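In the previous chapter we treated chains in isolation. Here, by contrast, the input contains two separate entities that must be folded as one system, with a combined length of 249 residues.
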Amino acid sequence: MGYRGREGYWAWVLHRISGLGVLIFLVLHILDTALVGLGPELYDHAIETLYRNPVARVGEVLLVAALLYHATNGLRITALDFWEEADRLQQRLWYVSWGLFALTFVPAAVVMLRPLFG
Amino acid sequence: MSAPARVHIGASIRGRGFELWSWYFFRWSGLLLVFLALGHVLIMHVLNSVDAINYAFVADRWRSIGWRIYDWLLLGLALTHGMNGLRVIVDDYVHGRRWRWVCLSSAWLLYCVLMLVGTLTILTFPHVSAN
């Protein structure tokens, strides 16, 4: 795959890492959700141990960051692929995608981390 | 279906057939997932939290056929998009013939098993009537 410029290269590296991270969580999440079929005690116990601890809370915020980056960068790539004008606006699109990321991630992170700080 | 007139950075279509299909699938499923996956995260992790999610929460949600369809679409699109991404990564980094075969078949097997497990989970969960 050919990429022009340093920014494009790092965007691509981050796209792979974030995608792989989300996929690893997805595998775990399909399996933990399957436990719902084995009854309330087992499922509630699994959710408690797997997700209700500080490490998982931080992981959850990282997951949201990875997902939002993958989404905003994916939209940027799709715009470059399908929208003729995008070529000319490449630099601006780069800022727009990071702007979208910040606008969505910061409020989500604040809401999600609030319980940790009482 | 014809190839896009111009191939921009970020896109590389190696041949037609499957790779072209895969290229389109990444983009269309990605667009749908922006709504499905981000909607799911908003509901589960921002408006609710892992403190609220338990068996009763799932039972309440899956009383609605609409949410079961939503979750099944999310499962299918996200898993196919993600495993196709994994396939591209294996293509790029695993060069030995034997290892490629091992990686790609394991990925296929994992994909089929997870798709089956996820589908069965959504389909077979009992309908809990509201009291």
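The radius of gyration of chain A is 18 Å. Chain A touches chain B through 48 residues (CB under 8 Å). Compare these points with the single-chain example from earlier in the chapter.
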